[in-house]
Design goal:
Number of helices: 4
Structural class: mainly alpha
Mean pLDDT: 91
Number of strands: 0
Order of helices and strands: HHHH
Helix content: 40-55%
Shape: globular
Low-confidence stretches: none
Amino acid sequence: MIIPVRCISCGKPIAQLWEQFNEKVAAGEDSGKVLDELGLKRYCCRTLFLTHVDTHKQVGKYKV
């Protein structure tokens, strides 16, 4: 799945922050601190980032 453009609950634009979040977490930084640095203070936005699973690579293997 693709990260939503806006937070489902509050409507804040968040999609542009997804790549930065992934890069920093992959580098070993704490996800909570990364979310704070990106300005995501609301729990609804934080939940979207922490629970999101990229499945587009897995789904792309299958054809109709």
